[in-house]
Amino acid sequence: MKAIQVTNYGGPEAASVQSVDTPIKNKGDVLVSVIASSVNPVDIKHMTPGTVQEIDQFPMVLGWDIAGIVIEADKDSAFQAGDRVLALHPQGSWQQVVPVQENQLLKLPEDIDFIYGASIPLGTVTALQALRKLKIKQGETLLVTGALGSVGGYAIELAKQAKIPLAGLVRNKEQKKMCEDLFDVTMYVSDETIPAFTTVFDTAGILGRTEILQPQGRLITVSDDKVSLNVEKQALWTEHHFVRTNQEDLQTIVALFSKGKLHSRIEAVYSMNEIQEALKLASQSGNNGKIIIVF
Ligand SMILES: NC(=O)c1ccc[n+]([C@@H]2O[C@H](COP(=O)([O-])OP(=O)(O)OC[C@H]3O[C@@H](n4cnc5c(N)ncnc54)[C@H](OP(=O)(O)O)[C@@H]3O)[C@@H](O)[C@H]2O)c1
Q: Which domain of life is it from (predicted)?
């Protein structure tokens, strides 16, 4: 079978398609034929030395999202060959066949196609879990930074449904217009004057601005950047959230997609042989949606 392997630290040129042995299924695993996956910022970070996620072993297969079809499962499994499935699988999704722990898998509803499915797991589950940790109460307000991004966009949609008074923060006027059209939510550009919110969900690594957080406010970030000392001093608490694979959370998310209450945006779809182009695009600023790889 084919896998996208990263053979060194570096840019897109460090990733290429290689022939490798098809993995063997262990008891408890479900063998999945990957139809589509996506490129997430974490994949780029894995390829970059000096990041929290730097790889220490090459060759490495990246990729956290899976939409695919079950090839083989245990007799007593809830899954069987032919099932359409979805998984948040940290990590190693960028290959044609992956053994996935059963508790990472979910059946993919018929109304969600594989490409759209592959856009869902990492961004949505991260948004859901981090938002939940903020425990926003009635009367509080929320600012989501990086609102046009994957995690930021899902956080906006989830918070809107929970009727939380919220606004988003984006990089420039063009993104502001796009986000206002998409979400019908107040948007601020980074260099504007921004009011103070009782809670901040940061996805953009904006962690040094005391004026956006009310005194004794709460801030959660999914970036790897450091919260500044001044923001730490002013806040009741700040936290770096790291996503956890959770079948129930993914189930909640998929149900929202099926009801039309959550949406993905797809920026581009590439074949696995075009991985370098996909990584090049993912490394750039200004994308409006997920970058999908089809296997
Ligand atoms: N801890 C975890 O468990 C976890 C899970 C998932 C993701 N993450 C991390 O969360 C971050 C966001 O992930 P994602 O998938 O949502 O990425 P994404 O789709 O690339 O979105 C990031 C968004 O933030 C915007 N942005 C970046 N810097 C900005 C700034 N200074 N001002 C305004 N907007 C800014 C980007 O705009 P431009 O396109 O203009 O740059 C982009 O719209 C990444 O660092 C990722 O690694 C962490």
A: Bacteria
Which DSSP letter does residue 60 get? B
What is the Å distance from ligand 1's center to 288 Cα? 11
- Ligand 1 and 217: CB distance under 6 A: no
Nearest CA residue ID for atom 45, ligand 1: 223
Fold (CATH) for 123-240: Rossmann fold (3.40.50)
Number of H helices and number of E strands within the chain? Answer: 8, 15
Q: Is the CB of 146 under 6 A from ligand 1?
A: yes
**Which tens digit of pLDDT belongs to each residue from 159-218?**
999 999 999 999 999 999 999 999 999 999 999 999 999 999 999 999 999 999 999 999
Q: What is the DSSP string of 84-120?
A: EEEEE-SS--SBSEEEEEGGGEEEPPTTS-HHHHHTS
- Within 8 A by CB and 6+ apart from 272, the residues are 2, 4, 17, 94, 96, 293, 294, 295
CATH class as words, domain 2-120+264-294 = alpha beta
CB 4 within 8 A of CB 257: no
* Mean pLDDT of the 248-253 span: 98
Range(s) for CATH 3.40.50.720 in the chain? Answer: 123-240
